[in-house]
TrEMBL record:
Domain Trypanosome variant surface glycoprotein B-type N-terminal span(s) in chain numbering: 42-118
Main location class: membrane
One Pfam family in the UniProt entry: VSG_B
Protein name per the record: Variant surface glycoprotein
Lineage: Eukaryota, Discoba, Euglenozoa, Kinetoplastea, Metakinetoplastina
Organism listed in the record: Trypanosoma congolense (strain IL3000)
Membrane topology: Lipid-anchor; GPI-anchor
């Protein structure tokens, strides 16, 4: 009896250890899968939707700007990444006036941060149990020429990887490998995308609150490419300066939830947008004239600024409503206040 109980205990311990080891073999595998599925769904939605507001939001997530064109599956590594900058600045914070490359600019950029090998080829370093990064091996991610072991990214005088101090041609080689091995597959989209699943995933992965960040950014510091630091993170600066650093994940749920428009609604939406644009311009001009007449130069009245901001937000909320009250897009404030299912 005791012998049988002992054997059962040994088997349980082995199963637990085996589960942990298997999971550790694929660094960032789960988070990569989450982002890849969301990107593939966004691509299909972008191709099919005629909702102009949703299309701009989806374009930001795919292309990194609101006016993307062409076939996403044919995109090459962005020219900015041919000579990559400091990995910490590009993947871990938005504080360096670099509005071309920052965390949260697009899903492809964030995938490059999460899935490009780091310092000395991390996580494919000597004695590591990791065999994959985002589901791909060392050879597929640019370690084929110099690695003495097919499962490692290690050699004498190793200069592998992209870090905060190493962003030369070697780093560019790894970024290009990651783009073709990982990002391109996600950009191809899905024949039958599961939009409901993508929306549910976003709700589960986003935390509640104005200063929250997705769960795939948790548990890291810096994201500079060092050991255990191959990741993407969104600092408070990214969230506090949305105009300078638009964050794709803050508004994507709304775009995935947006219905297609009838021709009548498209015409009405365009007309409403133009009318509110002119109204907002008139209000701001009036404010400038009043300010000049007061003799206060360039002094800004905070209360007046807040009022203009409220009017602008009010205009946007009307743009996304038809006269019958049907929502074309959920307002952004709904996403920030939703009871996310963590």
């Amino acid at each position: 009896m005791m012998k049988a109980l002992f054997l059962v205990m040994v088997c349980l311990v082995f199963m637990l250890l085996h589960g942990r080891t298997t999971k550790s073999h694929n660094h960032n595998g789960e988070h990569y899968g989450t982002l890849c599925d969301i990107l593939a769904t966004a691509v299909q939605k972008w191709k099919s939707t005629n909702n102009p507001t949703a299309k701009k939001t989806l374009s930001q997530a795919i292309f990194g700007h609101p006016n993307g064109k062409g076939d996403p599956s044919k995109l090459d590594l962005p020219s900015t990444h041919l000579k990559p900058g400091n990995r910490k600045n590009w993947c871990g914070e938005c504080m360096h006036n670099d509005q071309e490359s920052y965390p949260g600019k697009s899903i492809p950029h964030d995938l490059l941060c999460m899935c490009t090998v780091g310092e000395n080829g991390y996580p494919f370093i000597q004695y590591s149990e990791v065999r994959q990064l985002c589901g791909k091996g060392a050879k597929e991610l640019g370690c084929d020429k110099d690695a003495g072991n097919a499962e490692r990214c290690h050699s004498d005088n190793n200069k592998h990887g992209w870090t905060e101090s190493n962003w030369d041609g070697q780093a560019s080689k790894h970024l290009n490998a990651t783009w073709h091995a990982i990002v391109k597959a996600c950009l191809r989209g899905k024949p039958k995308p599961d939009v409901d699943k993508a929306r549910k995933t976003l709700l589960q992965k986003l935390d509640v609150g104005e200063y929250s960040t997705p769960s795939w950014a948790w548990g890291h510091s810096g994201c500079a490419g060092g050991n255990s630091d191959v990741c993407v993170g969104y600092g408070s600066w990214c969230l506090e300066h949305p105009k300078e650093y638009p964050q794709w994940w803050k508004t994507l749920y709304e775009a995935l939830n947006a219905p297609d428009l009838t021709q009548t609604r498209m015409n009405a939406t365009t007309t409403t947008l133009l009318n509110h644009t002119f109204d907002d311009s008139g209000e701001e001009e009036e404010g400038r004239e009043t300010q000049g007449a007061s003799g206060e130069g360039t002094h800004h009245d905070p209360s007046r600024t807040r009022q203009r901001h409220k009017r602008s937000s009010h205009a946007v909320s009307h743009i996304i409503k038809e006269e019958d009250g049907t929502m074309l897009l959920l307002p952004r404030s709904w996403l920030l206040g939703a009871p996310f299912l963590i």
